[in-house]
Design a protein that fits this description.
Elements (H helix, E strand, L loop, with lengths): L2 H10 L3 E2 L10 E3 L12 H6 L4 E4 L10 E3 L3 H14 L5 E5 L4 H12 L5 E3 L9 H7 L7 E5 L7 H9 L3 E4 L7 H4 L2 H17 L3 E5 L3 H7 L4 E5 L6 E5 L7 E5 L5 E5 L8 H13 L4 H10 L8 E4 L4 E5 L5 H13 L5 E6 L8 H13 L5 E5 L1 H6 L5 E4 L2 H10 L6 E5 L14
Parallel strand pairs: 1-2, 2-3, 3-4, 5-7, 5-8, 6-7, 8-9, 9-10, 10-11, 15-19, 16-17, 16-19, 17-18
Antiparallel strand pairs: 11-12, 12-13, 14-15
Helix pairs in contact: 1-3, 3-5, 4-10, 4-11, 6-8, 10-11, 12-13
Length: 430
């Protein structure tokens, strides 16, 4: 059966599930297979839990008419999503970038939802599985799709564009991340720009941070909706001085102005706010609704999230980290000039041959500030962090042991590291 033929079944059962533990009645179960799991083995469980059909690629598990046997389940899921996209006559806003993708995506959704019925990427499900699932979650009532695209190898963004066919696009920024897969910073630029090449080739709308020289070079003279703080962008903004949380003063092309008091921390989030404002304005939204959407967004999931514990105040930014985002977070935290300020930093992953150098650069940056205490966790930091004022640990468990022996009290603490470090384990001891 082809994806096009299967589409009539999907229309009758438009809920898609890939985890047999989270079956909803009448859904379609796609038995994905990975390095450490085989969804085919759970197809029967999915059906007994209420799934209407199971899409599998192992003939041995087929035992009834509610099994659909295909050559490759993942490819079939992608083909079905691509066909579904072809049936949707709606705008698709796609975004990628090194830092701020998910925050910007959430801000854009929050803004657009003030006026439109919007479906967007859930969490950071932004890869070759997540993007198809996002597309398939759009129903006939959906007016705008917002799709986040991630990549750690060349060609991945181009592949996702062929499935999602975005009509609008933006790149938040380009920086040093996933160097192990991209090979170099230039590899990052080339891969992220695959989104621009698709949008420009198809005559779509491009949103450009005109303050960023790398992004300006990518866009060239392609007509864009610009946003930034310098020059004369379409949407202009500055960060108001002072406070834990960002207040952004925004000017729109229709001469309307407003100050959005966000729940985000760090002036580096200004561009994420301006991107959302530019998208909202392009879709005909008023300053009042744009401001409401920006102010209504609440950070979560360990992304620039303030958290108060029994003994300390935490700035939790431990969902992910790379050299660019780590440096920005440290500089911002230092600029707050808080008494008893403490850093807890974890290793940055997927940096390949540049890993030792990049971790050493972060250590040098940390030394330029006067923090009350600095805790560094992970093999890379442990190998390069020496000297007074730094406490280094080979892993998160060793860090936790130290926090248990010598608890921190009355501190404001930045917690940041790559997802694989699982620094959230330390929160019970802060």
């Amino acid at each position: 059966m082809t994806a096009k033929e299967f589409y009539t079944i999907f229309l009758r059962n438009p809920q898609v599930c890939t985890d047999s533990r989270n079956i909803t009645p009448g859904c379609l179960f796609f038995a994905l297979t990975g390095d450490s799991f085989n969804g085919n083995l759970f197809a029967a469980d999915a059906l007994s839990s209420g799934a209407s059909f199971a899409v599998v690629d192992d003939p041995a598990v087929v035992s009834g008419s509610n099994y659909t046997l295909v050559k490759n389940v993942l490819e079939f899921l992608q083909e079905l999503a691509s066909f579904h996209r072809s049936q949707l006559n709606i705008p698709v806003v796609a975004l990628t970038g090194t830092n701020g993708k998910t925050t910007t995506k959430e801000l854009i959704q929050s803004v657009l939802k003030q006026q439109y019925r919007v479906v967007g990427t859930s969490g950071n499900l932004n890869n070759h599985i997540g993007v198809p699932l996002t597309l398939l979650s759009a129903g006939p009532e959906t007016e705008i799709l917002v799709v986040e695209m991630g990549a750690n190898h060349p060609g991945e963004i181009a592949f996702l564009c062929d499935i999602a066919r975005p009509t609008h696009g933006l790149i938040t920024n380009v920086g040093k991340a996933h160097l192990e897969g991209f090979g170099s910073f230039d590899g990052v630029v080339v891969t992220k720009s695959e989104l621009f090449r698709f949008v420009s080739r198809t005559g779509g709308t491009w949103f450009l941070n005109s303050d960023d020289e790398h992004l300006s070079a990518i866009a060239g003279d392609y007509p864009s909706i610009t946003y930034g703080s310098d020059g004369s962008p379409s949407v202009k903004g500055i960060a108001e001085a002072g406070g834990y949380q960002l207040a952004a003063s925004v000017s729109l092309p229709d001469q309307s102005e407003f100050v959005a008091k966000t729940s985000l921390t760090g002036n580096y989030n200004l561009y994420n706010v301006l991107a959302a404002a530019a998208v909202g304005y392009q879709f005909g939204m008023s300053a009042v609704k744009i401001r409401a959407g920006i102010e209504g967004y609440m950070p979560s999931n360990m992304r620039s999230q303030w958290k108060v514990t029994a003994g300390n105040r935490l700035l939790l930014d431990a969902y992910n980290a790379n050299p660019s985002s780590m440096a920005l977070a440290i500089r911002h935290f230092a600029s707050l000039n808080l008494p008893m300020s403490v850093l807890i930093l974890g290793d940055m992953f997927e940096l390949g041959n540049e890993s030792a150098v990049e971790h050493a650069e972060i250590v040098r940056l940390v030394r330029t500030f006067s923090f009350h205490a600095v805790y560094l966790a992970g093999k890379e930091f442990f190998n390069c962090a020496r000297g007074p004022g730094l406490q280094a640990f080979p892993d998160t468990e060793s860090l936790i042991a130290e926090l248990q022996r010598n608890p921190l009290q009355g501190c404001t603490i930045l917690v940041k590291g790559s997802r694989g470090m699982k620094l959230e384990k330390s929160l019970n001891y802060l």
